[in-house]
Design goal:
By secondary structure, the protein is of the alpha+beta class. About 30% of the residues lie in helices and about 35% in strands.
Length: about 190
């Protein structure tokens, strides 16, 4: 799969990736951004052709990859009628997980981190801002779904199974945090 992903990345090919063996009708659509020894970064595209964030998953979670289907051709047409807003990430000699976390820390982008596979995905992930990262660990200032600080979490990088950012969940929560911060400044 790694070789196929790299080929799709080089061609900038829109693809569908099936990652949940319990739901063979569900898949993610988008573009491969980066591939390392264990993980791939994927710029997701919604069913309306809009950017839908980035997800980083283990390569071993891939069940099937599709290209050039009628559905993907429809999405390509929708994409051609919009402006792209997806952020790029830089690979690191320390791997995709470290490189992405370092990028997210530097840009102060709200991030969801999962330590379970995508099959067990739920919103119990840790969501917040990366405040520190080294080659072994990262520190996250957590935020609740209500936009309030909710403690600090520490992760060993080798335990991270999924990173998501710029999805509708993180974008909406980051807007709420900004609104609450502005309200707080106005009161003081």
């Amino acid at each position: 799969m790694k070789k196929i992903l790299r080929g799709m990345q080089e061609k900038k090919q829109l693809i569908g990736i099936y990652i949940n063996p319990n739901n063979t009708f569900g898949f993610i659509v988008g573009y491969v951004m980066e591939v390392d020894a264990e993980f791939f970064a994927f710029s997701m595209i919604s069913e309306t052709g809009m950017d839908d964030g980035v997800i980083i998953l283990p390569i071993c979670d891939i069940i099937k990859i599709e290209e050039s289907s009628k559905y993907l051709n429809k999405i390509e047409k929708l994409i051609s009628c919009r402006d792209s807003g997806c952020r790029s990430i830089s690979p690191s000699i320390h791997g995709l997980i470290y490189g992405t976390l370092d990028f997210l820390k530097d840009k102060r982008i709200l991030t969801s981190i999962g330590i379970t596979s995508v099959q067990n995905h739920n919103r119990e992930d840790t969501t917040g801002f990366i405040v520190a990262v080294d080659v072994n660990t990262c520190t996250v200032q957590k935020y609740s779904q209500y936009g309030l600080e909710d403690g600090v979490a520490y992760f060993e990088l080798n335990r991270i199974k999924r990173i998501e950012y710029d999805t509708s969940y993180e974008v909406t929560l980051q807007r709420l945090i900004r609104i609450l911060d502005n309200e707080k400044r106005i009161r003081h």
